[in-house]
Amino acid sequence: MGRRTRTYCLVMVLAGWGLSCRTAEPTVPDQEKAWLAKGYRYDENGWIFLHIEGGPFERGFQRGYLTAGEIDEFLRTLAHVTEFQTSYNLDFFVRASSRLFQKNVPAEYVAEMRGIVAGMQHAGKEATYEQVLFMNGFIDVLWYWWPQERKRQIADHPGCSAFIATGDATADGKIVMAHNSWVGYALGKSANLIVEIVPAQGHRILMQSWGPCLYSATDFFLTGAGLVGTETTIGGFEHFDRRGTPVFVRARQAMQYANSIDEWAETMIRQNSGAYANSWLLGDIRTGEIACLDLGLKHHSLEKKTHGYFTGSNVTRNVQILRRETDARWDDVRDSCVARRVRWEKLMKEHHGRIDISRAQRMLADHYDVYLQKEQPGRRTICGHGELDDGQVPGSGPAYRPAGAFDAKVVDAQMAKNWKLWAKWGGSCDLGFDAAQFLEKHGQYDWMKGHLPDFPARPWTIFPRERQ
After folding, report:
1. What angle do CA 390, 394, 399 make, to 5 degrees?
2. Do the Cβ atoms of 178 and 410 come closer than 8 Å?
3. pTM of the model
4. Of residues 201, 219, 199, the one with CA closest to residue 209
5. Cα separation of 9 and 40, whole Å?
6. pLDDT score, position 4
7. CA 233, CA 222: separation in Å to the nearest integer?
8. What residues pair up with 181 in beta bridges, in sequence order?
9. Cα 50 from Cα 41, distance rounded (Å)
10. Rounded to whole angstroms, how far apart are CA atoms 144 and 204?
11. For each successive 10 residues of the chain (468 residues), what is the average pLDDT?
């Protein structure tokens, strides 16, 4: 399994003692101690596993307290990257998010975010409620509101590769789901959380998450209702309705309260803002049914099946969304989204009837470039490596941009039933990324110095593991 780092951050305050990742812990009042006794964290193979539970404020307090340093780092990097790419500082976007979201966030999630702020303060870190609100809605603001407002796109737009399969496509006839997340490595470094939420109301949730986000943001999750889900962003999409409900609210509500695929989709469609337009890949482990919800702003479709698969590569199959709401390509394999769409079809047919956890893990690490027709990791491969792409092929993006697949996650129906998932941090493959060596070679990205992380090769790990 490789080297493991196992650091427990349990707060055993009811027993009268504490163990934490931090030294010089501040004094915590009795009520907060009772809340923290329900939450814990441990670190393993680059991931942070975080368990929080209870009412909105108390579970937020647990999260803020146990990941205060990581939230602070995410805010620092988000501020730096955003200002460099737009020339506008953090306060500008915090004020914008407050205007956009102040009437569209339910009281439950307001309380959870205020709990995060209070927990951070007790851990010795400062953040305002408005800043936490922006961090939750940064995708809405930066990648949807900003392009509409200023007619200008931000370079760190996300991407990902994913599939969900079932029935005759898989080895046991049951669901298998896989996903890797793409974004600039500086921001992506803060998406290393596996969060287990046991809310006082609604279904429990096991998800990958980002900074202090109440939803997944990278979108890989299991729910207590027997639902599993992931997505890939719809590329070339810039539409946004500021009157709509932010995606972090809709996605969290869908995970926490939906009892079926149809209810999940209805929650996402209702008061849709267009932000984070996605091809959502969903499954119900109780029935073996899978679905693809292609969700634009004005157009959407929900397709379901009990045999076969759906794949995602940041290009929608919904023709109305594709032609009316995006400027995306469909058949130019020089384009990353198209090349990966074609490669997924090849892999799914090649492994049809045999897809399982191990094959899913290998497929996520695939480095075959269908345009070059050879193994060469870059922006057109399912395991994306912008830092290795010279940008000479039209449509491949800026040369050597440090962005791509920085993780991988896989789950099947049996694992989901047992409330487990596989996760790999630092990349879907084992190539790794050394920030200092990269910056020495590619000085054009020196503005990222101090924010660009190392991604050493790490092993696949099961989360959560049994408490000791």
Report:
1. 25
2. yes
3. 0.92
4. 219
5. 6
6. 40
7. 19
8. 160
9. 4
10. 29
11. 40 35 54 92 98 98 98 98 95 96 95 98 97 97 89 70 98 98 96 98 98 97 98 92 96 98 98 95 98 97 98 96 93 95 98 98 98 97 97 84 97 98 98 98 97 97 86
* pLDDT for res 234: 95
Residue from 120, 154, 161 nearest 140 by CA: 154
How many Cβ atoms sit within 10 Å of the Cβ of residue 167? Answer: 17
* 278: phi then psi, degrees, rounded to nearest 5: -140, 160
Are the C-beta atoms of 13 and 38 separated by less than 8 Å? no
Residue 103: CB atoms within 10 Å:
8
Alpha carbon distance 210, 193 (integer Å): 6
Domain range annotation of the chain: 159-191+279-461
Q: How far is CA 296 from CA 25, 31, 150, 320, in A?
A: 46, 44, 21, 9
pLDDT for the residue numbered 26: 52
What is residue 394's predicted lDDT score, i.e. its pLDDT? 78
pLDDT at 158: 66
**Cβ contacts of residue 27 below 8 Å, gap of 6+?**
none
Phi, psi of 182 (to 5 degrees): -125, 135
- Specify the pLDDT at position 16: 33
Place of tokens 């050879």: 374
Architecture of the domain spanning 159-191+279-461: 4-Layer Sandwich (3.60)
For residues 402 and 81, what is the distance between their CA atoms, to the nearest angstrom? 13
Helix/strand/coil (H/E/C) assignment for every residue in the chain: CCCCCCEECCCCHHHCCCCCCCCCCCCCCHHHHHHHCCCEEEEECCEEEEEEEECHHHHHHHHHHHCHHHHHHHHHHHHHHHHHHHCCCHHHHHHHHHHHHCCCCCHHHHHHHHHHHHHHHHCCCCCCHHHHHHHHCHHHHHHHHHHHHHCCCCCCCCEEEEEEEEHHHECCCCCEEEEEEEEEHHHHCCCCEEEEEEECCCCCEEEEECCCCCCCCCCEEEECCCEEEEEEECCCECCCCCCCECHHHHHHHHHHHCCCHHHHHHHHHCCECCCCCEEEEEEECCCCEEEEEEECCCCEEEEEECCEEEEECCCCCCHHHHHHCECCCCCCCCCHHHHHHHHHHHHHHHCCCCECHHHHHHHHCCCEECCCCEECCCCCCCCCEHHHCCCCCCCCCCCCCCEEECEEEEEEHHHHHCCCEEEEECCCCCCCECHHHHHHHCHHHHHHCCCCCCECCCCCEEECCCCC
Distance separating alpha carbons of residues 364 and 449, to the nearest angstrom: 29
